[in-house]
Amino acid sequence: MKPPVFLDRDGVINLNRSDYVKNLDEFVPIDGAVESIAKLAVAGHPVVVVTNQSCIGRGLCREEDVRAIHEHLRKIVALAGGIIDGIYYCPHHPDEGCNCRKPGTGLVERASSELSLVPGGYIVGDAQTDMELGFRTGLKTIMVRTGRGESQLNHIVFEGLTMPWKTVASITEAVDLIIDTENAGEGNG
User: Fold this and answer.
1) Quick check: pTM over 0.85?
2) 25 catalytic, yes or no?
């Protein structure tokens, strides 16, 4: 089994919004993202979306709205010839102190257990919290410059935090990097 790839949602798969993606009308995939997810799946990698959705805990949308977005995402990836093995999200307000809110490890641990994933793999994100989650769970970290990626990368550098394993322009480059790394036998899976 190939190593899993954990993907953040907002800013990686779809356009990020400062007021949150609260419904299907606000869900706009980034160019090439759906095809890239399908490419990962076809290459044999389990694909898992892990996303903080505090818009639920903040009372800005309903859990059913987030589930509708995720069902739509599954459908459009399937139409592109791929599959998403799991979508895990944290619905909590940041003040709730849960373990599922990234950089907490709960989403990756739950997905790994429920989907019987091999240890290791990759995380693709646009935030320092995604990178921190990767460090905490032994994943290779890939920061995209879409979404909040550019400003978050500047934050990482300014604060002297641990740099991601790789930085790329978008999910398309991240997927190509993962597939090339695995084909070269350099992955951690």
Assistant:
1) yes
2) no
Q: Which of 10, 65, 126, 130 is catalytic?
A: 10
**What count of other Cβ atoms lies within 10 Å of the Cβ of residue 34?**
21
pLDDT at residue number 188 = 52
Active site (annotated) includes residue 126 = no
Residue 4 phi, psi dihedral angles, 5° rounding: -75, 155
Q: Percentage helix, strand, coil, to 5, in the chain?
A: 40, 15, 40
Structure confidence by residue, pLDDT tens digits, 77-97:
999 999 999 999 999 999 999
CATH architecture of the domain 5-183 equals 3-Layer(aba) Sandwich (3.40)
The predicted structure's pLDDT at residue 185: 83
Between CA 80 and CA 70 the distance in angstroms is 15
